[in-house]
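protien #1 (seq + structre)
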Amino acid sequence: MRIITGILKGRQINIPNTLNVRPTAARTKEGLFSILEARKYIRSTNILDLFAGSGNLGFEAISRGADKVLFVDSDRRNIDHIEEVGREFEVSDRIRTVVTPVEKFLEGMPLPYDIIFCDPPYDYPLMHKMIEMIVSDGWLAENGWLILEHDKRHDFTDHPHCAYYKEYGRTHVSIFLAEKGIEF
């Protein structure tokens, strides 16, 4: 995996075989960041990367000017890898990491984020509850976005906070806004 553009453009994120991750495909990542670049200002934003895995999305956001990224993942090996990549890319001062299950993290005190990336396992049983917690409990800043990767078994197009939906092969992306019914 490589960083597409920005200050880290072309840098590779090497993923050891020992990590149990499903990184966002290059085509999906390019499409997702094209939407962000066209419709939302990413510079100086605070990002939350849930189910962070390899850190692919969070590091792309840093490369494009995000101020800070908090990576959350339940697997210590994934977080160790993200911290190592942060040191390698010399952006450790712009990242924080938390090792905990996402559902436990979301039970904590909410801090509003401008953009929340969320790439849970496709069979994650708490998907709907997690979305409700994020959009209703103060995790999204005013004009904040929740960007959720999921598979075709989940359809959020009727959700009152869902403002955008796009298919990228077997990966589907839904974008939820902090406020209901806002034009995308």
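ok now protien #2
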Amino acid sequence: MMARLRIRDLLLAAALMTVGIATLTWGMQPTLAATITLTNCETNCSPTPSHSPSPSPSPSPYPSPSPYPSPSPTPTGADSSGNSIGGLANQRFNQMITNRVLGTVLLGVNEQVNCSDCISAFGSAGSFSAGIHGRKELTNNLSLLAGIAYTQYNEGGYKITSAPIGAFALRYDFTDWGSSRPFFDVGTILTPWEKARYTRSYDTSLGPVSVTSSTNASNYAVYGRAGWMSRLSPRDEVAASIEVWQLWQRVSGYSDSVVAFNPFDASIADGTDRTNLVKIGGQWTHLFAGNIETNINGGWVQSFASHSGIVATVTGNGTVVPTMGNQGWFEYGGRLGFRVQKGWIVDLFANGTLGPQPVGNTIHGGVGLRINY
């Protein structure tokens, strides 16, 4: 009996175990299927493409303008602008000397020391000049030399127009001393008004600048001369002399004229230029064949105690006052006269300077008709 019960218990336990295993197996199948399905998807399905970044846009060939424009470059050249004031001083010194050279023609610089009364009308080129001059014997020893002319000239950056020149002098000739004797002159040259144009040039980092401005000027000169002349023959006269001059030049104030580009502009105040001169010279007058007159003259000139009247206010430099050093140069002149009939002479003449700047090398030539009476 006991044996049957054990067998039945064993069979019952085996049956329960079988049912449990079957149940457990059935419950695990969906999980396994899910596992297989997931494995197959990870293995066989195409992977989802990853998101690539958008390409950067290519730069535009036309850059966008900046809302703040770049500043213009600042030019340099203030020192050059300041130095250009020295060039103006040189121009004004040359102006004084040229005005004097033209004035001496009115005082008979190309004529002999002693001659009869005469009057001459003339015109010249190189510097345009036209006028009359002559001499009149007041006594046996005293003569008056005088003349007036209208001139215009330019040299080294400046130009003078509408300039009337007047000159007169007294000459005392010791005729009672014989053929070899002393003589003395005292006189003046006056140019009370003239139009003047001066050019100032300088360099900057952005290019050169040239400014021409207009103003008014006037020139005055006084002189004394002491010399000795000799009548070597009825056809020859020679003379040597020493002259002392004082020159003044008044220039009205002005500012640079308006130009497109002038970053370092200047303003020039009213001013008076001055210089003193001493000249040692000589001349020779000769008559050829009774109807051809010749004269050559020349001398060395030295300036001293020169002063520039320029006081300039220059942007970037402030006040600039140039200096004028002493200058030395040679002056020359000559005349060739043709006696076309008694008392009537046609003259060809020239006068000029030879020397360093600011005087430089100049020549002024002309033609005249002279009448002796």
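Residues 1-5, 18-54 have pLDDT under 50 and may be disordered.
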